[in-house]
Amino acid sequence: MTSETAYEPAPSRRRPTLLKAVIFIVLMAAIMAGLLAAASLLRSKEGPKIATVEPQPLAVSVSPVEYLTELDIEELFTGIAEARRTSRLGFQTGGRIERIDVRVGDTVKAGQTIARLDTRGLSAQLASARAVVEEARTSHQLALDTADRQRQLQAQGHVSAQRVEEFVAQATTAMARVEAARAQADTLRVQIDLASITAPYDGMIVARFADEGAIAGPGQAILELVEAGDLEARIGVAARIVPQLVPGDTYTLEAETGPVDAVLRSVTGVVDASQRTVAAVFEVPASSGVPAGSLVRLKMQRKLEEKGFWVPLKALSSANRGMWTVYAVVGEGDDWRAQPRLVEMVYPAGERAFVRGPVEPGERIIVDGLQRVTPGAKVLPREVQHAETANGG
Predict the structure, then answer these.
(1) What is the total count of domains within the chain?
(2) 40 is a domain residue
(3) Which of 241-252 are b and which e, b meaning 16 or more Cβ less than 10 Å from the residue's Cβ?
(4) How far apart are CA 381 and CA 246, in angstroms?
(5) Do 143 and 100 share a structural domain?
(6) CA dihedral sign, ordered 135, 141, 145, 147
(7) What is the gyration radius of the CA atoms in the chain, in angstroms?
(8) Model pTM?
(9) What does 328-366 look like in DSSP terms, one character per residue?
(10) Does 221 map to a domain?
(11) Which of 246, 289, 238 is nearest to 264 (CA)?
(12) Positive or negative: CA dihedral 284, 287, 296, 351
């Protein structure tokens, strides 16, 4: 009994020890959380420790702006030198093509027969129609002779007047059959004539669309003919240029074969709705050697009264709504920075353009290497020799 009483308090001593362990763990967790929060706050106050290096200025080529109040410009207008007449030739009636006497590149004369259909069927019909004409003519003559005899008998009192009138009517009917037969024969002759193609004017064959043995439909193009001789150059010009053009005067056109003198024949004076140009027609002599269908260009000089300045095309970068951007070099203390300016292109000319915009005379703009430049970038300007002159040349 005594020994059992001595061992009973043992479980009651373990409970305080477990509670102390739990409290100790909670306190350690709170201390660690506080230390982490303090370290984070300290780092946020100090800020990120990032090493920064000032970028070196970009070396750029610059040129000062020089304004012009007017400009002599050269405008170029393009057209096509064409033959006065070009025709696609075919048969009016259909049938099998019997022969084509020309090839591409052959020259022909007006009235020359150059192709023909097989007309054997038409020829047979024409022979039959001629026989019908002869038969009708014979019947008509017989009717006339009979009517004459009946008149003689009437004069002798052997036949009545009605009998004579009947034979006269038969003669009239026979004459009508003669005319109908002749008309049928004439129709067949016309069809035989239409079964051939004749050149309507002197020219050259430039295309052939069918060969012998093929079945040609009515109106189907078989050959293409271009008229020989002088050419016509139709050039669309701006309406403002029309007062400078004088019909009858000679102008120099630039063709693929070189310069050629052409006489201005006419100016339509009507603005084309689609091209917004006025057609000027020039006569290009055949001796010039200009091929039909080649491009020709007319150069005209005019004075442009517009304040602006020249810049190289490589000094421009595209902006919104058809505008362009140039970069002016602006001083900032001891540094230079690139400042964008919006400009409008007035007149492009080769590798440069005449522009206008908010750029002061004498300001320097960057003329090369825009792909490396950003707005506000620090730059190191380097002067370049002027490439523009006052006359824009």
Answers:
(1) 3
(2) no
(3) beeebeeeeebe
(4) 52
(5) yes
(6) positive
(7) 51
(8) 0.55
(9) EEEEETTEEEEEEEEEEEEEEETTEEEEESS--TT-EEE
(10) no
(11) 246
(12) negative
* 3-state SS class at 252: strand
Q: Which residue has the higher pLDDT, 365 or 142?
A: 365
User: Interior CA angle at 388 toward 383 and 393, to 5°?
Assistant: 160
For residues 327 and 280, membership in a common domain is answered with: no
Boundaries of domain holding 190: 93-204
d(CA 156, CA 35): 163
The more confident residue out of 272 and 51 is 272
Token pair listed for 170: 């038969």
* 156 C-beta neighbours (distance < 10 Å), count: 7
- Residue 233 placed within a domain: yes
Residues in the chain: 393
**Residues 6 or more apart whose Cβ sits within 8 Å of residue 96:** 117, 118, 213, 214, 215, 216
User: pLDDT at position 44, please?
Assistant: 57
The residue type at 236 = G
296/316 same-domain check: no
Q: Cα 53 to chain center, whole Å? A: 55
Average pLDDT, the chain: 82
As given in the structure block, the two tokens for residue 106 are: 């052959």
Please, are residues 254 and 299 in contact by the beta-carbon 8 Å criterion?
A: yes
Q: Are strands 107-108 and 250-255 parallel, antiparallel or unpaired?
A: unpaired
Give me the half-sphere count of Cα atoms (radius 13 Å) on the Cβ side of residue 140. 16
What are 321-327's contacts with CB under 8 Å, separation 24+?
324/355, 326/355, 326/357, 326/359, 326/365, 326/366, 327/365, 327/366, 327/370, 327/373, 327/375
Task: Enter the tokens of residue 373.
Answer: 């430049």
Q: 218 exposed, middle or buried (CB, 10 Å; 0-12, 13-18, 19+)?
A: exposed
Cβ proximity of 278 and 317 under 8 Å: no
Q: What percent of the chain is modeled with pLDDT above 90?
A: 38
State which of 204, 238, 254 marks the end of a domain: 204
Question: What pLDDT digit, counting tens, does each position of 52-84 carry?
Answer: 566 788 889 999 999 998 888 888 899 999 998
